[in-house]
């Protein structure tokens, strides 16, 4: 008899194999990832505590930074526990619905992070290009509405991804060649027509990441034009310095995001290279963000130094 293809109808369990091709060493790979996760968790918790407890940091830029830190914490919590369980304990099985839930939270937090970066550059644009109206435009109510819009946009657009996956019934495999439930990795399991899933995945990527990147780029062109029109060199350097931390975070987020996105869909890189890069893309920005802002933002840097050397606050 000839061999028959095996298919799975409405699978209840899927299997994540971690990093294909590196299964024999992924136990050790888990340790640097754990280090990155710990840096991300401690750094962002530290950042949140500083911003929430220091009243003079209750300004738009720092409020957005606090939301970014909370988003990074959510991203780490969504991906790290299961990934490390796969690497260290061989806990590869996962309920299909739990996989879709993880998929939703990972991609939703990605979309929220992109939106918050756009909100932060909007804050810098107003502060530099229209400083006299900064406080009147970025009121507390406006900030709340902005954060809610970012969150709702991400949750609604990403929320359709698991719904479209849930409608699929026939799968050619239940083995996901990844360390977490990523949208395209799950789509590739299907034995049905997945053109809608692929097309909508592309739409979400460009509607969130593409849209945000274009407007961040345009905003920085306008910001640089305003900065270079300043008459004094010191004023130009001071204005530019307020943007350096955000530029660094913006570049590391979007470069890693688009490399991971396009390599998965159109590239011909080895599976383990793509999975390593996509995992780095998810975990490294949350770890780097508090470090970058802690170093480049004077107010946060001073507060961190005070805490680290146990110097009590002194009122002048």
From TrEMBL:
TM annotation in the entry: 27-50, 62-80, 142-165, 202-227, 239-260, 272-293
Alphabetized PROSITE patterns for the sequence: G_PROTEIN_RECEP_F1_2 (PS50262)
G-protein coupled receptors family 1 profile domain mapped to chain residues: 43-293
Principal location listed in the UniProt entry: membrane
Signal peptide limits: none
InterPro entries (UniProt xref): GPCR_Rhodpsn, GPCR_Rhodpsn_7TM, Olfact_rcpt, OR51/52/56-like
Record's protein name: Olfactory receptor 52A1-like
Gene Ontology cellular component terms for the protein in this record: plasma membrane
Species this protein is from: Neomonachus schauinslandi
One MF term in the entry's GO annotations: olfactory receptor activity
Record SUPFAM superfamilies: Family A G protein-coupled receptor-like
Localization annotation: Membrane
Task of the protein: Putative odorant or sperm cell receptor.
Protein topology in the membrane: Multi-pass membrane protein
Keywords, sorted A to Z: G-protein coupled receptor, Membrane, Olfaction, Receptor, Sensory transduction, Transducer, Transmembrane, Transmembrane helix
């Amino acid at each position: 008899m000839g061999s028959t293809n095996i298919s799975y109808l409405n699978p209840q369990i899927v299997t994540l194999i971690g990093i294909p091709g590196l299964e024999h060493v992924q136990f050790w790979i888990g340790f640097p990832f754990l280090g990155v996760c710990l840096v991300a968790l401690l750094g962002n918790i530290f950042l949140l505590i500083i911003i929430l407890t220091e009243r003079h940091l209750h300004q738009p830029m720092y409020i957005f930074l606090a939301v970014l830190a909370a988003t990074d914490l959510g991203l780490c919590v969504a991906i790290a526990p299961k990934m490390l369980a796969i690497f260290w304990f061989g806990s590869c099985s996962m309920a299909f619905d739990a996989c879709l839930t993880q998929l939703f939270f990972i991609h939703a937090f990605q979309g929220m992070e992109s939106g918050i970066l756009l909100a932060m550059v909007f804050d810098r644009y107003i502060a530099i290009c229209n400083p006299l109206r900064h406080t009147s435009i970025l009121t507390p109510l406006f900030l709340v509405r902005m954060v809610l819009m970012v969150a709702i946009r991400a949750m609604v657009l990403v929320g359709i991804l698991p719904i479209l996956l849930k409608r699929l019934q026939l799968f050619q495999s239940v083995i996901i060649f990844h360390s977490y439930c990523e949208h395209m990795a799950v789509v590739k399991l299907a034995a049905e027509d997945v053109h809608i899933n692929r097309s909508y995945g592309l739409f979400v990527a460009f509607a969130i990441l593409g849209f945000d990147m274009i407007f961040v780029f345009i905003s920085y062109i306008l910001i640089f034009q305003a900065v270079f029109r300043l008459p004094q060199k010191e004023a130009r350097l001071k204005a530019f310095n307020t943007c350096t931390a955000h530029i660094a975070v913006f570049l590391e987020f979007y470069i890693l995001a688009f490399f991971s996105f396009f390599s998965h869909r159109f590239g011909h890189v080895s599976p383990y290279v793509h999975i390593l890069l996509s995992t780095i893309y998810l975990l490294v920005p949350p770890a780097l963000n508090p470090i970058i802002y802690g170093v480049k933002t004077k107010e946060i840097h001073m507060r961190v130094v005070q805490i680290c050397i146990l110097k009590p606050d002194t009122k002048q």
